[in-house]
Amino acid sequence: MTVLASATIPAGLAKPDLAVLVAAPRGFCAGVDRAIHIVELALERYGAPVYVRHEIVHNRFVVDSLKAKGAVFVEELDEVPEGVPVVFSAHGVPKSVPAAAEMRNMNYLDATCPLVSKVHRQAERLVEAGRHILFIGHQGHPEVIGTFGQVPDGAMTLIETLADAQTVTVANPDDLGFLTQTTLSVDDTSDMVAELQRRFPAIIGPKGDDICYATSNRQAAVKAMAPRCDLVLVIGATNSSNSQRLREVAEREGAAAYLIQRAVNIDWRWFDGVATVGITAGASAPEVLVQEVLARLADRFTLTTENITTAVEQVVFKLPRALVAS
Q1: In which residues is [4Fe-4S] cluster bound (predicted)?
Q2: 160 is catalytic
Q3: Which residues are part of a known binding site for [4Fe-4S] cluster?
Q4: Is residue 204 part of a domain?
Q5: What's the pTM value of the predicted model, to 2 decimals?
Q6: What is the per-residue pLDDT across 95-135, written as a single tens digit (0 to 9) for each?
């Protein structure tokens, strides 16, 4: 990606007009907000350093902000020294991770999103009932690794694409269940689930949708906004599944779409011939980055801004008792 150095129109030249549609909901979800708050409260209670296994959420700005406060990010528990607290990321971890922490008598805090934990419990119940699980998700994503780690090896098969759903073979079609990663494309997942249900009529799934409310809401807002846009900017990290899905949704609705981490990543050539731009942010991107992008646009254009609101979120998740007890 080429980044042009100057974002400001020279003095004396009129700024061109630009209509900006801003999607709502956007940005932080309740699970991300909870996870970040857990790290901040741990730093207040125990002092620095507090170790965090894996990025607490997939956003470099958030990770760097927590590093500045004393958080240390590692990939595995064997990188954590004795006598310091450790936090598990919002994406969830295999059962082997807390088991290893307990063997070392580590003080650990689990910041797994409660909606991911719900999927973990569903997986356990399906396996206990003797069902093999077809799990719809992305290979290598931390949430997928964590969910597979809740059940014995061989108890789950990963379904990544519609082609996988069309061709997967199973030992017993009458003893199947399906679950999904929480941050997938609503439309793609619906197609895959429908195909699995067509091929395996006895398959059972969750009572409610495993794709979390925040992922669904942000995709719905982009669907409402993107048809009116020539260009959509999605603020989020490249390793953020839900942010990548927002970019895909915008493209399917006919807009050019780019995923950017910060305002500095904007390439002004994208704006050639653009009259209307849409702005949204993935569930792990803070609002300050949205405002940063809007400020950068205002340096170059005369903005007319409109909010596109498709839902109002009021979800709040409880914090671990260890952090709220007096």
Answers
A1: 29, 113, 212
A2: no
A3: 29, 113, 212
A4: no
A5: 0.92
A6: 999 999 999 999 999 999 999 999 999 999 999 999 999 99
